[in-house]
Amino acid sequence: MAFFNRLWTFFSGDTKQLHKQADALKIGILGAANICNMALINPASKLSNILIYGIAARNRPKAEAFARKHHIPKVYDNYDELLADPDITMIYNPLPNGLHYQWTMKALRSGKHVLCEKPLSNNANEAREMVEEARKQNRLLVEAFHYRYHPMCNETLRNILSNKDQIGSIQNISAVLTVTSSFFKRDDIRFQYSLGGGTQMDLGCYVVSSCQFIVNTYNNRNDDNEGPFEIQKAEALRVSPTNPQIDHGMRSDLILDGIKCNIYCEFTNNWSITKQQITIECEHAIITVGYFIAPVFYHYITVHDRRGNQTRTIKNYGDNQSTYYYQLKAFIEAVKIAQDESSIDRAYEIAYTTGKSGIRNMEIIDEIYRKAGLVVRGTEI
What we know:
By secondary structure, this protein is an alpha/beta fold. The protein is 37% helix and 23% strand. Strand 9 and strand 10 form a beta hairpin. InterPro entries: Gfo/Idh/MocA-like_OxRdtase_N, Gfo/Idh/MocA_domain, NAD(P)-bd_dom_sf.
């Protein structure tokens, strides 16, 4: 019954945008990407203080159809026209990775706060420029690592990692994320180098981010004092001779701030191999996190006490909302703080997946590609 309650909460909402507050913040969408439904349309239907006001796409008829389906008031001829609308406060950028830099920079220069899909950019150099532009424009740049906002991660896992007396030192972290490639066409944007494709960019950004979160939480780090990292080994899997810069999987060994991490991501050829799991081996405990990316449907955290040989399982569904709901709620609150209190720093305490953390994420991904003998995304080949 609890599972069905979560499904009902996930799929219900004000889908026609009929019950919005008069002062609801207006957001514009760049592109009619598939992820928009889950990442923006669905969570916005449960929040009265945000109005999905407009959309632009490369194909105007596609944008018009999307707007009709989701009751979006305004359609623009192109992205530039949408960014020029003074009624829009915020931008959601779900464009392919290779276009994040160009259109996020334009959005920031147009005075908009930006929620940008992950990974933030093609590479670390682009990410640094984006963060600097956000600083200059006094606007928020938030990377959409939605799982970080769910209470399973932000409350339960954070509390476990903070209890150092119970778990002892972290000895190793293993993070695995695999998805069947059968869901995607061969020419999917995920497999196009010119659009910032590659499995390490798509799935791998999650496992890198999760390891960063665990290490930074344990070591009491934040975006302003990230520890050092080293990529010890990286192996690209199933690289096609006809598409030699696209990895369909990646295995990497790295050290983050003194802690060993093993990460594996792959778009597999097997329907049955879909896995998302993090194992944190500690001095006194083994912590296992299952289904951390979409915990609204099902997840678990097990803590095995090595000293007492006992295992407990913890779940935290919060109020049954999705990761995207918590992320969008935080982004809206952060934008209001930035507007009302003129405090970007205070806003980033609420929307904490910042551009700065995105820089480190891209630095690690860049080095993984180099170690694997592949080219950093965004490099001309």
